[in-house]
Amino acid sequence: MTASTHNAVDNVLERFVVENAREHLLTDDQIIRAATESSRVNKALQKYTVDARLGGSLNDDPRLLQKAEKRMKEARIVFTTCTGAGLGIIRKTNFGIVLIDEASQITEPAAMIPLVKECHTAVMVGDHVQLRPTVRPMGKALEFDRSLFERLYTGPEYRLLSRTMLKTQYRFSEAIARFPSTEFYEGQLETGAQLDDEIASLALTLFPWPTDDKGRIFPVTFVPCTSEEDYGRSSKSNVGQVNLVMHIIHLLRTLSDTHQESQEFTIDELKKKLRQTSIAILTPYSRQVKLLTENIKLNENTVVSTIDGFQGREADIVVFTTVRSNMDGDLGFLDDARRLNVAWTRPKLGLVIVGDKRTLGTNSLWKRAIDACREVVIERPVEETVASK
Question: Which of 241, 231, 212 lies closest to 355 in space, CA to CA?
């Protein structure tokens, strides 16, 4: 079982361990986490590494090699990165079955490493309309960022190749799914999540979530902000949007006056529920991440990240600060439809997009995205304003 990064591999191993404990599929000795450096492995999972199995490191004691090779032969499943499949103790080990997770984020040469080790069955899992592998500008010009997964999924038919779309998603509601389904998945994306009660709980906050014609919370909103972006830097920021996002977070974390009294829950219980709601503040630009981090109080339930860094993760609510606001209608990174798709599909319950409608509207996809939202105008208090650093 492979993926592009150690974190991605550990995420799958962590879930497999839980499933294995419930179903009793394999013994612990039959599960190996291979890494040339055990320190790169999540501490909770280091007991599955070869070093832990041997009680020592191959780097320090080459005499353990035979024992390590024996352990590998006894293993039924090995977890490692794609490049790790060609390194260390498993360099000469062949695998009949190869699984590659997040395959659309892996360059084709990296994906080939586990596949050329006498593999007779391969399963690649990914999303070819989300972000591609990160490569240097020259590599992008040569389409080096196009993954093997994307090439096989969108290319011609091959004998013994089958392509399957898992159409049902269980993360977010149909209201959130509607736009990405239409724009990116040919209208085929179906929703299996039943989140009506959780979405209704958004009304507990001071944030003025709009409602549909049946009085239900509509969880996809656009908050206009005409504050201009900064100029003269390769990575952009927007102080006005930071100020507005700060106020939005305050609203999302504050109990509405109409819910101060409840027959079901005490005020303390309702406030605790708000604190436990996870919020991710996403933006295309690392400079905006820095400015947000300097001015917003973060904890385990409130995080700030670039869109690229948050792919594969989720939060109850996503606040997406788009940054770009200029006279030329220049969108920069925002012009990448994949980035919009990733940001839109991270929230479980609610999405709040903050941006300049005039600048975003110069792009036809973004114009349709704004039209798919309900607009909410929010005035931020002067006392919450911060200065750029």
Answer: 241
Angle at 219 between CA 176 and CA 378, to 5 degrees: 130
Query: Which of 103, 113, 185, 116 lies closest to 152, judged by CA?
Result: 103
**Tokens 């002067």 sit at which residue?**
382
Tell me how far the alpha carbon of residue 4 is from its chain's centroid.
14
Taken in order of first residue, the domains within the chain and their CATH numbers are 2-167 (3.40.50.300), 174-384 (3.40.50.300)
Q: What is the pLDDT along the chain (389 residues), one digit of tens a residue?
A: 999 999 889 999 999 999 999 999 999 999 999 998 888 999 999 999 988 888 877 777 778 888 888 888 889 999 999 999 999 889 889 999 999 999 999 999 999 999 999 999 999 999 999 989 988 889 989 999 999 999 999 999 999 999 999 999 999 999 999 999 999 999 999 999 889 889 988 988 999 999 988 889 999 999 999 999 998 777 899 999 999 999 999 999 998 877 655 556 778 778 888 888 999 999 999 999 999 999 998 888 999 999 988 988 899 999 999 999 999 999 988 999 999 999 999 999 999 999 999 999 999 999 999 999 999 999 866 555 665 54
